[in-house]
Amino acid sequence: xxxxxxxxELPKIGDRRGNLSFIEGAGKxxxxxxxxxxxxxxxxxxxxxxxxxxxxxxxxxxxxxxxFDVVLHxxxxxxxxxxxxxxxxxYVPRMMWRSMENFSTNxxxxxxSSTDYSEADYIRDFEVFRKExxx
Length: 135
Ligand code: TYD
What we know:
Layout: E1 6-9, E2 12-13, E3 20-21, E4 36-41, E5 49-54, E6 59-65, E7 68-73, E8 78-83, E9 88-92, E10 97-101, E11 108-113, E12 122-123, H1 126-133
Antiparallel strand pairs: 1-9, 2-3, 4-11, 5-10, 5-12, 6-9, 6-11, 7-8, 7-10
Bound molecules: thymidine-5'-diphosphate.
Protein name: FdtA/QdtA family cupin domain-containing protein
Pfam families: FdtA
Domain Sugar 3,4-ketoisomerase QdtA cupin: 4-132
């Protein structure tokens, strides 16, 4: 049985000087060892990112600023998440077709990854993905 995507609430330390949240990997808040971090920003209105799956890499996505939708497909079912709070993250298991869309102006998507970047890990054709995942 494949793993399910999951919204994870992060710590939020409230303070009159402002809020502070944090993420620790290796099972503390994110169920993997964090190997790489990247962020997506300056997305023009109406653009869609992603449109691929990873064979091994799993991710944790946080809307550090603004909002956007993460649309996932496990080969059978679609899952749609609207991220708009910096103290919630979405865990995306490996072998999930993933797109990101509806970026608000000035949104900032932080992505934590479990593997180094490798183009060989990507599946960029949905039919190839569907055949590999539904076995
Ligand atoms: P890609 O993962 O296809 O972006 P998105 O899923 O947001 O549409 O990556 C876009 C480009 O950036 C692609 O040429 C690969 C490169 N890239 C890296 O070099 N290192 C990385 O860690 C990532 C995520 C992408």
